[in-house]
Amino acid sequence: MDYREVLRLLAIHDTRFTDECVSRARDRSFKLDPKTLALVRIGVLVAVGGAVPSYGAEVDAALSAGATVDEIVEVLIRVVPVIGLSGVVAAAPNLALALGYDVEDDLERQSVG
User: Fold this and answer.
1) Is residue 61 located within the same domain as residue 8?
2) Model confidence at 6, in pLDDT bands (50, 70, 90)?
3) One-letter-per-residue 3-state SS of 26-67
C-alpha cells in the first residue's frame, strides 16, 4: 500500500484499516529494523510519560537488537526539541531505572556522603 493511502486512511480514521493496524502492530514485516523500532518506542515513552515497566520492555528490546546504552540515552537528548526539557527531565529517572541505574538512590547517597 502506498504511503499516501496509509496516511489518508489514518486521517479519516477508517475503522477497518485502523483495526488492521492494531492487529498488525507486532508484525515483523514492517520496514523498521528492531533496533530502530525500539529506540522510536523509547522516544514515544518519553513523550507520553510512560511507566517504568514499559521502559524496561523497550530498553530490553533495544539492547537485544544491538543498541548501546549510549544510543538509548541519546534518545532523551534528541527528543528535547520536540517534547521540551521538562518532559525529558521527568523521564530520565524512569529510563535510568530501566537501565539498572537508580538516580534517586545515587543522589541520596551523594548528599549523605
Assistant:
1) no
2) confident
3) CCCCCCCCHHHHHHHHHHHHHHHCCCHHHHHHHHHHHHHCCC
